[in-house]
């Protein structure tokens, strides 16, 4: 018996705009078991963020339902910690205050809060930066703080929207490895949006490939490679080639659509 | 060393101007009433800065005695008007600005009125201020409050409206209520704008206080230089003007230091 954590059922999302309606999501059907690491993969504009935001509770789907732990999602909540590509750290708070923000809101006692913050600073290698403001940190460090801020509330589910998209290749790899380490320790459910095929294969138990407008699920596949995965291995590259074909087809439709839109302007 | 030399270089022009001015005065190019010599101005300034009574420990503390001279007394009067007028103006503008910034309904309701009133210079309210409040401190405070009200209001509205929605989303995601978001996200995120508005507001207050003192009250630096004009004491007028300049510089330096301290997290301010 699988323990279903997220259940996405016939979800559609239509954005009304002056230039006509945009069907961002159409009849998305997907169940995520507890503890699974899922990657949503697809070209720009295929609706990955829209789906993630719907799970987070930022936007209601125009049709269908999303339940987390059997409860219908209608608003954002700390049980679904979100990590944004733009970090979204509060620039007026130092690293420690940022990490403690969710705990402040929960009204956790000061000493207990400090213990959690200290543990996370240590876990993410941030101890030397606790008093720094976000603007004095590199991109990689900022994203570590954002991850720690979410982990502080120990949510059963983490939603990550291209969290490493703005980082250089080396920093990216080290954060991926760190994320996998954290995930192995806590076994949280993770929904991770990316448009990097390699990142998806490196991280995920399962990859959901999406189509471009309307956003539907094109392929839902299990990555059956032992971890740590070696991006140079033949099996890794076979999968990469297969996925590249799927994604490229959507990529072309996406850039065609964008060219047409540009021509209209 | 470079710092010292740049200070010295910066001093060249002012010193040169003063020397030429002194030479022209001594040559009798201007009458003392038209343009007194720098030395006469300096002498007047020293005189006006000095306490009127000799020091008497039984009457006051040394510090109070030290600032009991005419100009120190006037400067204190002007400064306290600026601060209280600013406190009233900013104290009203801040809550209204926060409301207008957060609520589209209140914004649509209030904005036309704000836009109509805002371009009227506070000085233009002088006749009305006298009709309403008579003479004395009340009309002065009204004008100063008015002068600081709009800069703070407009900047607060703009500050709240420019808060990046990603912070709001992050805060909601972490479980923050609307009240918490307002207090811990919107307020700090808009503080660079609000503080910039406060700085403009206090600058305006300082301009207005000098004008207000010329018409409504009988102390303060504005009153003092107008009084000196009646006796054609041009040296005292200029000494008073320089004191006004020094006070303005003091206020702005303090405001700017405070700004830098409060916004030390903010991009664009050196640490
Ligand atoms: N608020 C909105 N109003 C109108 N259209 C929207 C809105 N948000 C998203 N869209 C459209 O919906 C589609 C899906 O957008 P979404 O941001 O989910 O894509 P994405 O897969 O996350 O892309 P990217 O990789 O660029 O982040 C896009 O075509 C976008 O233009
Ligand atoms: Mg996106």
Automatic annotation (TrEMBL), chain A:
Belongs to the ABC transporter superfamily. Pfam families: ABC_tran (PF00005). Gene3D superfamilies: P-loop containing nucleotide triphosphate hydrolases (3.40.50.300). It comes from Candidatus Raskinella chloraquaticus. This is Sulfonate ABC transporter ATP-binding protein. Transmembrane segments: none annotated. GO terms for molecular function: ATP binding; ATP hydrolysis activity. InterPro entries: AAA+_ATPase, ABC_transporter-like_ATP-bd, ABC_transporter-like_CS, ABC_transporter_ATP-bind, P-loop_NTPase. Signal peptide: none annotated. Keywords: ATP-binding, Nucleotide-binding, Transport. Residues 9-237 form the ABC transporter domain. The lineage of its organism: Bacteria, Pseudomonadati, Pseudomonadota, Alphaproteobacteria, Hyphomicrobiales.
TrEMBL record, chain B:
Residues 75-255 form the ABC transmembrane type-1 domain. GO terms for biological process: alkanesulfonate transmembrane transport. It is found in: Cell membrane. Its main location: membrane. The chain crosses the membrane at residues 12-35, 82-101, 113-135, 141-160, 193-217, 237-255. Belongs to the binding-protein-dependent transport system permease family. This is Sulfonate ABC transporter permease. It comes from Candidatus Raskinella chloraquaticus.
């Amino acid at each position: 018996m699988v323990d279903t954590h997220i259940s996405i059922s016939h979800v559609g999302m239509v954005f009304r705009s002056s230039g006509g309606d945009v069907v961002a999501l159409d009849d998305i059907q997907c169940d995520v078991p507890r503890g699974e690491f899922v990657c949503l993969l697809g070209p720009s504009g295929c609706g990955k963020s829209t789906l993630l935001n719907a799970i987070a509770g930022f936007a209601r789907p125009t049709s269908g339902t999303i339940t987390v732990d059997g409860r219908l999602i209608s608003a954002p909540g700390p049980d679904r910690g979100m990590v944004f590509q733009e970090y979204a750290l509060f620039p007026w708070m130092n690293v420690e205050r940022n990490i403690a923000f969710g705990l402040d809101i929960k009204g956790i006692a000061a000493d207990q809060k400090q213990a959690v913050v200290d543990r996370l600073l240590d876990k993410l290698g941030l101890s030397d930066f606790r008093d720094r403001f976000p603007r004095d940190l590199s991109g990689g460090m900022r994203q570590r703080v954002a991850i720690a801020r979410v982990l502080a509330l120990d949510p059963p589910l983490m939603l990550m929207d291209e969290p490493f998209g703005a980082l250089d290749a080396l920093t990216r790899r080290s954060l991926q490895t760190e994320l996998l380490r954290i995930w192995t320790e806590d076994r949280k459910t993770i929904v991770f949006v990316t448009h990097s095929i390699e990142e998806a294969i490196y991280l995920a138990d399962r990859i959901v490939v999406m189509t471009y407008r309307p956003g539907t699920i094109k392929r839902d596949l299990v990555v059956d490679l032992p971890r740590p995965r070696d991006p140079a291995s033949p099996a890794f590259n076979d999968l990469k080639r297969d996925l590249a074909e799927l994604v490229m087809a959507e990529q072309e439709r996406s850039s065609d659509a964008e060219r047409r839109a540009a021509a209209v302007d | 060393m470079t710092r010292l030399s740049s200070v010295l270089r910066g001093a060249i022009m002012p010193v040169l101007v003063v020397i030429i001015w002194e030479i022209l005065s001594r040559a009798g190019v201007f009458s003392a009433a038209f343009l007194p010599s720098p030395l006469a101005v300096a002498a007047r300034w020293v005189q006006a800065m000095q306490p009127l009574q000799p020091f008497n420990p039984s009457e006051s503390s040394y510090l109070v005695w030290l600032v009991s001279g005419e100009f120190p007394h006037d400067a204190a009067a002007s400064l306290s008007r600026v601060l209280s007028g600013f406190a009233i103006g900013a104290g009203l503008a801040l809550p209204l600005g926060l409301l207008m910034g957060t609520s589209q309904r209140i914004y649509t309701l209030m904005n036309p009125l704000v836009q109509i009133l805002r371009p009227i210079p506070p000085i233009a309210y002088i006749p009305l201020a006298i009709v309403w409040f008579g003479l004395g401190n009340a009309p002065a405070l009204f004008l100063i409050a008015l002068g600081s009200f709009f800069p703070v209001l407009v900047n607060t509205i703009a500050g709240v409206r420019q808060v990046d929605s990603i912070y709001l989303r992050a805060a909601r995601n972490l479980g923050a209520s609307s009240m918490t978001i307002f207090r811990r996200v919107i307020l700090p995120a808009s503080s660079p704008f609000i503080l910039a508005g406060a700085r403009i507001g206090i600058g305006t207050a300082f301009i207005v206080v000098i004008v207000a003192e010329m018409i409504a009250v009988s102390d303060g630096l504005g009153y003092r230089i107008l009084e000196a004009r009646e006796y054609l004491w041009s040296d005292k007028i200029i000494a008073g003007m320089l004191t006004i300049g020094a006070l303005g510089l003091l206020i702005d330096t303090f405001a700017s230091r405070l700004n830098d301290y409060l916004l030390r997290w903010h991009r664009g301010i050196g640490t």
